[in-house]
Amino acid sequence: MQQAPQNPYPGSYYGPPIPPQQANHRNRRRTIIRAFIAFWIAIGITVLILWLVYRPNKIKFSVENAYLTNFTLTTSPSYLDYDLYTTVSIRNPNKKIGVYYDRLEASAFYSGYRFGWIPLPTFYQGHKNTTMLFPSFDGRSIVTDSSVSDTFKNENATRFFNIDLWFNAKIRLKYGSWIKIKYTVRIRCDIRVPLVTNGNSNNAGFQWTQCDVDY
Question: Cα(191)–Cα(65) distance, rounded to whole angstroms?
């Protein structure tokens, strides 16, 4: 009985040859994936090094003083007449980071209802620096929410009004002389504001208030 010819290379398998173009395509794809992974690893290492070197801290907002010279709610129709004055401190606590305030605006809310809005100046704030701003709101606003009237009746008897002061900011943090990272920041200040009738706003009873800063 004739035996089948033996394979001179046991365990080996010879399939159809891989076309050179397909092999090159696979190699290019692997190279791109590796480069992409290496790029993001490098970015992560750079951010970590910057954080370790600069150790950034959040900017700090506080309301130093606030008072009302007019806060009147009329009915049929409902109008809120207001004159609100505030003194706001903005602090950059960082030793090696500057802050560009590219956009800054303030809004005033009463019982969840926004009655005032103003734009604030843009500026650059250096290291370990404090900037004072004096946002003021005056005018008349139509009130459509009945809950505002109920809150006003309760607080008008005390001559203190709970007002929410919001700041929206677009900032850039300057690391050294060349890297700038953009952030959108929201700041909320819950303040209890006295109504001043004797003209002496310094002794009106306002309490210094630290604001919440959210990047």
Answer: 9
